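Q: Hi! First time doing this. I have a protein sequence and I read that you can turn it into a structure. Is that right? Here it is:
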Amino acid sequence: MKPQEPLSLDALTAIDGLLTHEELMIRDTVRRFVRERYLPRAAELFAKEQFATDLIPEIAQMGLLGASLEGYGCAGMNAVSYGLALAELEYGDSGLRSFVSVQGSLAMYPIRRFGSEDQKNKYLPKMAAGELIGCFGLTEPDAGSDPGSMKTRARKDGDSYVLTGTKMWITSAPICDLAVVWAKVDDGDASSIRGLIVERGAKGFETPTIHGKMSLRASPTGEIVLNEVRVPQENVLPGVVGLKGPLSCLTQARFGISWGALGAARACYEAAVAYTRERVQFGQPVAAKQLVQEQIVEMAMDIAKGQILALHYGRLKDAGGITPVQVSFCKKNNVGLALRAARKARGLLGGNGILLDYPVIRHALNLESVYTYEGTDEVHTLILGSALTGHNAF
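A: Yes, that's right. Below is the predicted 3D structure, encoded as structure tokens:
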């Protein structure tokens, strides 16, 4: 009996019928870009630890930098359109999606929400155009899941603040033109966490690259070293004091990650289906074997449920907002299912599953980082546990 054409995941969920014409157009535009401009280079970029900086103008042209923000040259996409775009970017590579997430949710968002009008006008249009690249300085060598224990300090000195400290695991730091750095500001007798915009070229500001990563190799990751960096008063974000500032940025990024991870999962799933349909053992394609079909079905069910969850929360966000707890739920669920899908796909490809000729091992390695950043899986578990039981376990 001749095998039938496999049913696509989009057909399984009938997801297209739930999307507007504009949402479909944005998704399909980014999908073409990733397949035509990024995927032919994806393995080489990963192998050589290189980021495709030459594609930044094209990414900006599609309106993907600060895509969900309003005004100042930003596209003003709704949450669902933005999520769909990130899923397509991560179908290419988590590093590609991370660049867009950091630029929009972690660098542009705090300026848009907490910045002065002068700061917004100075930075946001150029960031939306890809002319200025930003990064987000929160995590430190000894302050990851507990950002309140940060050691970076800013002391008042005349009309400036002097910054000292080190930030770690900072996406886009090596290529950034500016960094939104969160520090404990000593202002008289009080100490509070504030956001400061630090521009490239400031004396004492360095961003060494972190080498030797086995995950997110196609993403530019570095440190931010602050050695008595003088930051003018006008570069302090005036609209927020305390951890509310950086945590609100992380909530925006986590929402995007919950969509992006679905793209990585789908890439692994599609690679596994295509491979098992072609790979013949014992006189049959391995896709005809029951144990293989069981794993394919489990992957498809997981991804389909994740898509429906992300779409539901995207609609809620567009209707007036979702809570940080709901974002944690979506991030934990969807990154977890993506990592399971990558591991299943790696097994189904056998020895070929560890080759960069196929996308699976690249996504599997990348997702190990996605599982950890913007709140570890354990942190999201405790956020949900606290909400569901009323007891804080932190």
